[in-house]
Amino acid sequence: MSTSASAVVLEVSGVSKRFGGLQALSDVGLRIARGQVYGLIGPNGAGKTTFFNVITGLYAPDSGRFELAGKPYQPSAVHQVARAGIARTFQNIRLFADMTALENVMVGRHVRTGSGLLGAVFRSRAFREEEAAIEARAQELLDYVGIGRYADFRARTLSYGDQRRLEIARALATDPQLVALDEPAAGMNATEKIELRALIDRIRHDGRTVLLIEHDVKLVMGLCDRVTVLDYGKPIAEGTPAEVQQNARVIEAYLGHGHSTPTLPAAAPVEPEARA
Ligand SMILES: Nc1ncnc2c1ncn2[C@@H]1O[C@H](COP(=O)(O)OP(=O)(O)O)[C@@H](O)[C@H]1O
Ligand SMILES: [Mg+2]
Fold this sequence. Notes:
Elements: E1 8-19, E2 22-33, E3 37-41, H1 48-55, E4 63-68, E5 71-72, H2 78-84, E6 86-88, H3 101-110, H4 117-122, H5 125-145, H6 160-172, E7 178-182, H7 190-205, E8 209-213, H8 217-223, E9 226-231, E10 234-239, H9 241-246, H10 248-255, H11 264-267
Parallel strand pairs: 3-8, 3-9, 6-7, 7-8
Antiparallel strand pairs: 1-2, 1-4, 4-5, 9-10
Helix pairs in contact: 3-5, 3-6, 5-6
Bound molecules: adenosine-5'-diphosphate (ADP) and magnesium ion.
Magnesium ion binds at residues 48-49, 91.
């Protein structure tokens, strides 16, 4: 299958990252077409979050080539990555806990807008208009993810599931080409997971591209167009969910990590909450 350059949102190849004696990523690559929900799965410690940290500029890779919408980019600084068009959420939620939900989304939106410090100091008319527009858009995004009624609540007072949704709203505020979600369902109950699935479906339907790390294999299989499986930092399979589910190396990787249940969905490892 051939895809034209503009149809590919993210193309990454040869990504390696070592931490001391640990090869966390070896020669990882993937290619995500516009409008896909692309899954990155694998056992606990496989390198999924490290991969996110590399493509979003938190960790400098030892090697790797990176293209966003056909243009090479260097993921060397977090704000440059945001401007280039990748937004993300974090496995360990990172919100401004004492700011309101609305303010948290407005912070995300500011990445995209122009009037700088001087505008803010003098509260120029352009600044005030821009601020009002940012606020309106932030409220829209809160409604979109289903927590509009909590706009004025401090982030710390929201339920865990709602905090995860707030992170998604903040990510969307940058109008990203790619939204990267690191275990968005972690800590959610069954109802919240169903709602999350509907939300991610809607994000795709509205024309965005999603890269999803998820441990809930049922969610991944139901949602993703394609999947890459990592094991010990190496890509061991790539394909549709149905294809990778049949892959012997994938089954072995999941079973080989001390999980004795014979079916893949049940064998998905549960990541401990606080692994720093
Ligand atoms: N900043 C770091 N320093 C040292 N080792 C790290 C760091 N971040 C991750 N690792 C290690 O890299 C490996 C992959 O971790 P991670 O990417 O978090 O896995 P996953 O998200 O797939 O569970 C693990 O062995 C982890 O302990
Ligand atoms: Mg992780």
